[in-house]
Amino acid sequence: MTNNKINLYFSHEVEQLAEQLSSNVSEEVRGAVNPLLPSRVIVPNANMQRYLQLFMAETKGICANLDFPFLEKGLSQYLNLFEVEQQAPLWSQTELTIKIYAFLSASELMADSAMQPINHYLNSQANELLLSRKKWQLAQRLAVLFVSYELQRPEMVMQWTAGKSHFYHSEDQQLRSIETAERHIYQYIMQSNAQKGGHSLFQRFQLIDWQGVMKPDQAMHLFTPTRLSAFHRHLLVHLAQFLPVYIYQLNVCSEYWEDLMTDREDAWLRTINSQSIYAHNAAGELVADEAASGAEVFFELSDEDTENPLLKAWAKPGRESLRLFSQLEDDAIHLNVAYQPDWLFGKQSRNLKALHVIQDSILNRTQQKKLFKDREQLTTLQMAVAPSIYREVQAVYNNVLVNLQQDNALQLTDIAILVPDMDKYRCVIEQVFIEQSSQHPFQLRYSLIDSSVRTESLYAQAVLGLFDVLEHDFVRSVVLKWLANDCVKQALNLSDEELAEWLNWLSRLGVYSHFDHLYDAPDQDELSRRFTWQQGLQRLRQSLVSDDALSLSQDTQLMGRLSWLIESLNQWHQVLQKPRYPKDWQQLVTQITTSFVAIPEGHNKEEQVRVALSVSMDKLVQHAGQVLMNLADIRYYIEQEFIHLSASKGNYLSGGLICASLQPMRPIPFKITYILGLDERSFPGELYQETLDLTQRSRRLGDINKIENMNYLFLETLMCSREKLYLSYVGQDLVKDETILPSSTWQTLHDYATSLMDHESLALQSY
């Protein structure tokens, strides 16, 4: 393969990009000096990795000796090829969060005058529990912003490392003070990292001597990077001086369309054009209209009547991505790197049904006329409103059965159900699939993706439930909920019957909360009916020797086990109230989880969660070893680690029908796609002005907000639906008796599809 080049492949079909990738990798292997060295394909996420593995295995017969790192890790691996000494592993965002939290907890560091706005924010909260949560949340947000600054604002970070401010000229005092605080934290964290041998990807790039590096015998394959930052673009063009770089980019349009204007940009242009224009001569004097009438005049044709409205409404991120690739070409020319863009044309068969007509109009940047004259044309794009989430999912389940019955070649893995909020839909999807499967002679296998360990793992729920018991003063409902966990019952060797007996005792004993002291009650009568755990256990033991009408069970062994459990938990409650260093917390967490949480047989995935918890505590000790933390700090940290660990039921693309979140960087094609939850409250989201985010003060090319990002994601999903697309939302809030409107995205597509209908031919009424 030829070095010193960037080959950029465009296509509106992911299948064509995957086929080109497979061909390039095969050619690379045939010409490799070391055929045992794995080829690297950088992918945006594990779902795309799975798709490529299955695609190559199907088309080539095998997929082996391939490495699929994600973007940051993959680029770091390529930088390893150019470094004389192997650098320490990349700092993850979790590790950066811990370092920032340690900084925020160090009183001597926070005493600096530069930290005044941060101190003002933190010191406004006197509650220790809420203060702990604010510190962690602030650390998490700053970690995200620091990574974003390195990628999107490298020039600002360079100024920071040189001890200068980027907004020094601003008249906004708050902006300058916030930048000073963030710069102070960033400089301290990065200097501390450098002393310990750790660097971010941005810093490692700065340290490489590009003049004296050797050319590695390896190519880079970058598959469907939705958008590349300014730093990524700069890094890629430097790497392309020494190895071939192949970029496979999904493009929803069949041409270069950087000139496309959004509706807001059109409105701005109309405002500008409506202003009065004055002509001046060389001396700066006004020229009369008559004198200027002979001057050369240019006219520009408005695109309002020619441009596709869906492309105008949703495609801004894709348009700016093309502009960034144009800048990449300029950088390549500057560094004498060959730049070759190639278009891969689609091979999918097309028809005149609604979905393909709309896709073709987007692809070709055209506005279609009224083409829908037959009801059969409308079957490929269906939009619906449901009275409830349950009914919405139930309708999807029944429709899947209909499609499977109509198409014998259709596989479950060809169908995807996507939702904007998986936490909201997960339980409903499971409930409907279980209920419907019991009513049909066969079951629909499905895989549930994009959940978290916090939600799915019994072990994680048992650990967090244990912290809840210790934090919330032994409230009876919290204790019993924790005891019902299978991991807790396994550790305590507790059966369902024994737990039911405990519940009966506690209800009749009137145990409410706390271990050994009373609490406020509305009145004295109410107080007399409530008891602490200590009082309840005393009455339980007394029932063995008294003729009390309580007449509880005579199972002394079961009573003893309950007494031991509650008294042991109380001892741990006393021990954990004292602030400690992370190393001590690590030992205590290990001891308490070993005592009260165990993994039942057959739950092999729970062992992975236990190991992940151990690794997380190791990170905390390594990066915040000298910070005193309380129980609330540890509990919040562990909970966030569980939330960020992904979990799933079934195997993606091989475990049946796919149920997943509607997330960016997943342009995976499906024959039939269902998108649920497209109401105005859930999609595409809301915009917030954030004081901490310095990038909001000056927009750059490639700065995409949440709404633009989600709309473009919807556009990619629409273009990746091969045969049918179903869209729905819940239109009624049954609790508040309110009507819920569809999202603007849903409404835009509905209006455009309606405009293509010939209502007379369809015998439909316009609505």
From TrEMBL:
Pfam family, one: Exonuc_V_gamma
Residue stretches spanning the membrane: none
InterPro entries documented for this protein: DExx_box_DNA_helicase_dom_sf, P-loop_NTPase
Alphabetized UniProt keyword annotations: ATP-binding, DNA damage, DNA repair, DNA-binding, Exonuclease, Helicase, Hydrolase, Nuclease, Nucleotide-binding
Gene Ontology molecular-function annotations: ATP binding; DNA binding; exodeoxyribonuclease V activity; helicase activity
Enzyme Commission number(s) of this protein: 3.1.11.5
One GO biological process term: DNA recombination
Top class in the EC scheme: hydrolase
Name of the protein: Exodeoxyribonuclease V gamma chain
